[in-house]
Amino acid sequence: MDISQLKKIRALGKLEEMAAVAHALDLYITAGFSVHYKASQALKNPDVESLIYHAVRQVLIELPMMFAVPIIAEGEETYFARLPFIDLRTVISFAQRQNAIVNDGKGRDIELDVTLQQQVNTNVKSDQGIVPVWRLVILYDSTDKQQFTANFMVHHAIADGASFQILHRAFHKALHGLSLHSGMPSQVEYIASSKNDDAIGPPLEAIHSLQIAEEAPQTDAPKYNDWLGNITELPNKTGYATLTLSQSMHLRGSTLSSPRRYTYSNLPPTTESMDINIPVDIRSELPPKAVDGIISNSFDAFRTRVFRSDFYGQYSSELGDIWTAARKVQADTRSYFSRTRAFWRNVSQYCWLEERTQSAGLAQAHDWCAS
Question: Which domain of life is it from (predicted)?
């Protein structure tokens, strides 16, 4: 699709612009979120492929951000434009596993890993001009198409990690609603059209323009032999491997520390520490009307440092214990929230702006106060 056919929605915010530029430079291609779906009972209509197409059409109606594409022009303002339509056949693909999913507790799903590694390294650039910036890859179970893994891959400029949960909830709701009715249309309408008056969420700085206080850096901070990663090469190729987190880790709040242990097991033994940025969804602290159920980039991040020595047991020279690191990450997380929640209490009296798009395509600002 030619850029002249697209209608401008609004300028990109800073987080959105950073993701758009990174994608354009092939530094960071795409993000993804996978969920396994299983019908609780036999479907009245066994045509699962048609069901998925119908469900995605409903998702696009509920989440108009899926029609948005970031536009980067050298020397000009970056902005979101709206696709007038999406041909669902170009964004949804289907495949079937060759083997059953093995629940061996080791956390590897090889077929899913292969699919995701290919997807995270596939950008949205096309010889056909401007195309949708998301894909849905359906990976059917080996023996039953009423069980499948849905892999949404979305350009990071339009969605953060929490947005994927919103996306999957909308998809699940659509699947559930359509499955209850035997009267689902037999013909699939593959062309989904957008509406000129469909609004998208505002950029983060439009509803949160103040800086959150950071902890003052230590002037005499010690130096460590950090792992800094490999030299960046273009195009950047991301590896992928699944990791299962046990229920005990969720109960003890240690899901952030376990991947660090596995990372250390693959790093040079001279690596002393990792300086880590942990993203945090801040929707709960933003005006609900601007973020609830809306795909956007609404996150902050804080830094923590994890040492290799944190993963050694008291009487062991092998990497394995995660609880020392878990407690440290937990303490840093609590420190972040105590600092930021005090900030939000201080600014709760301020009014915010919510951007909406009128049918004429012009942005109109509405004043209202955050509760």
Answer: Eukaryota
| Selection from 181, 157, 177 nearest residue 169 by Cα | 177
Question: Mean pLDDT, the chain, as a whole number?
Answer: 80
The residue among 334, 302, 320 whose CA lies nearest residue 258 is 320
Judged against a pLDDT cut of 60, whether residue 132 lies above it is answered with yes
pLDDT of residue 13: 94
Q: Is the dihedral of CA 173, 175, 178, 184 positive or negative?
A: positive
Give the dihedral of Cα atoms 216, 220, 224, 226; nearest 10 deg. 30
Query: Who's near 95: CB < 8 A, 6+ residues apart?
Result: 115, 137, 138, 139, 140
Q: How far apart are CA 112 and CA 142, in angstroms?
A: 12
> Per residue in 308-358, pLDDT tens?
877 765 444 555 566 777 788 888 888 888 877 665 554 443 333 333 333
Q: Omega before 235 cis (within 30°)?
A: yes
Q: Classify burial at 14, counting beta carbons within 10 Å of its beta carbon; exposed 0-12, middle 13-18, buried 19 or more.
A: exposed
Q: Is the separation of the CB atoms in 286 and 208 below 8 Å?
A: yes
Which value, in Å, is the radius of gyration of the alpha carbons in the chain?
A: 23
What the chain holds in terms of domains, given with CATH numbers, is 3-193 (3.30.559.10), 204-353 (no CATH)
Q: Does residue 12 surpass a pLDDT of 80?
A: yes
